[in-house]
Amino acid sequence: MDVAIAGGHGRIALRLTRLLAARGDRVRGLIRNPAHADDVRAAGGEPVLCDLEGDGDVAAAIAGADAVVFAAGAGPGSGAERKRTMDLGGALRLIEAAKAQGIDRYVMISAMSADDPSRGEGVFRAYLEAKGAADRALRESGLDFTIVRPGRLTDEPGTGRVAIAPRLDPGAVPRDDVAAVLAAVLDEPRTAGLTFDLVSGDTPVAEAVAAVAGD
Q1: Partners of 3 in the beta sheet?
Q2: Residue 33 contacts residue 27 (beta carbons within 8 Å)
Q3: Is 54's pLDDT higher than 90?
């Protein structure tokens, strides 16, 4: 599989790159900072310079890919406007690029409560609003989407066990396990059209993804 990851230097993106590269997939990590190229290479990916907020040709950056993953984000410390330009605007540009290249598969890293921004305040509410709008646009795009909404992200070692459902109570999940779920989703075409929450749990990743897909 040939996978292009937007936000290729992100902490989840690099973990996903390692997993995909280790099983023999081609991975392109879209980055805007050339200084991040070596980190993408070290994870087993191919760095591709592409600024989702700039005037670069996103479609050219993902040409030939079988799937795209939106793992980009404005990041902590950014303001409400950047949430709109990256978490929403960047996702929209990747949608249009995927459609232009005939790439049907699009996996989105979203956030729990993206469909209920009233649970957040200030900048966090703006973030949830941006994520919710991006999710809606993806659902309406006609692409084979999967929207993964993790809870609070941690850098604790992954357990390989998660809880996945359309709605879950708030919780935390290691970035390792989010990456593992994304890799499993890319392998499971029946997850197309699904939106689900993700937190730590008791079910092995492969079983959890198969269950939500309909097994």
Answers
A1: 27, 67
A2: no
A3: no
- Enter the DSSP assignment of 78: -
Residue in 4, 21, 89, 83 with CA at minimum distance from that of residue 54 = 89
Q: What is the pLDDT of residue 74?
A: 65
Reduced to 3 states (helix: H, G, I; strand: E, B; else coil), residue 128 is helix
Containing structural domain, residue 140 = 2-213
pLDDT band (50, 70, 90) for residue 118: confident
Residues 6+ away with beta carbon under 8 Å from 43: 14, 17, 18, 21, 27, 29
Q: How many domains, in total, are found in the chain?
A: 1
Helix, strand or coil, per DSSP, at residue 192: coil
> Residues 105-128: what's their mean pLDDT?
85
Q: b/e string for 62-74 if b means 16 or more Cβ within 10 A?
A: bbebebbbbbbbb
Whole-number pLDDT of residue 114: 87
Domain containing residue 50: CATH number:
3.40.50.720
Structure tokens at 149: 């909404």
- pLDDT over 90 (residue 75): no
What is the residue whose two structure tokens read 């066990």? 161
Return the amino acid letter for 47: P
How would you classify the pairing of strands 2-6 and 67-70? Answer: parallel
Give the catalytic positions in this structure: 127
